[in-house]
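Continuing the series of single-chain predictions for the mutant panel. This is the parent chain; the variants come on the following pages.
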Amino acid sequence: MSAVFTRLDDRLGGFALRPLDADADAALLHTWVTHPKAAFWLMQDADVTRVADEYRQIAAHPHHDAYLGLWRGSPAFLAERYDPAHVELVGLYDHQPGDVGMHFLCAPVGTPVHGFTRAVLTTVMAWLFADPATRRVVVEPDVRNTAVHALNAAVGFTAVGPIVKPEKDALLSVCTRAQFQAAADRAAADRAAATRTEGAPA
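Parent structure:
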């Protein structure tokens, strides 16, 4: 399948997203969603059939879709986009026009790459904001997932507060286009400053 979005990271290279194929990608996704590091994905006990069924349902849903993320041409992450007025957050928060919900999951790796998860999240956010209709991205990670809370804050999210969902207690957070751009500008300035420092004479 063709990529629907591509982004070149100045340090890690090319990222892309393509539509997920529930049948062809199910075996690969199964290894990701059942990995211990994906506990917050809530599919630890799933078999391949359940994974395929789950993503067939998402593909058929009018307000939810899923994409396979590629890094340097190889599968490396999963991204889901949904309309929070119809999925996940119905009646649980103050919905605004232009809100888009998002989930993402990085593939488990033996040797982590520094900055990779943030680059993935930045790619997913850039993809969502490439649609001019998107005004805010809304997320609802588990309140216990402190690592993703910190990552979300780094790309511009602000916490609204806890909400109770059927499957978890979640921390509702939102990020406007301006907040995302400001965070990206800060990150670029920090990288430039680090480069200048590294290149300074001893």
